[in-house]
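My current task is to audit a protein record that another person submitted. Please read both lines and tell me whether the tokens look consistent with the sequence. Do not assume that whoever made the record got everything right. I have pasted the whole thing underneath without changing anything:

===
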Amino acid sequence: MRKAKAFTFRKILPPPHKSSLTRSCPLKAYSFVPFSPLAMLDPTILTIGGIVLGIALIERILERWGVIDLVDQFAKVMRFILPVTFYSALIYFFATFMF
């Protein structure tokens, strides 16, 4: 009976070339993240905007129904709430996505 010849991987494949480990000088890298309008799709921003739009729609519906006293109350409240909400959402947006 004939013996089978054994092949080792070292005989078939040459050993991998070892490159010398040289370290380069550390490089300071700066990154710039441009403003993305898709960042406005944050759930908090969308919720605040939805609430404000909902109040505005309710005001319009009440105006069509002829409930002017209630519409005047909504208008007085919205005169205060809209600027506060807008600036709060703007500050939240820049504080969350820019830093």
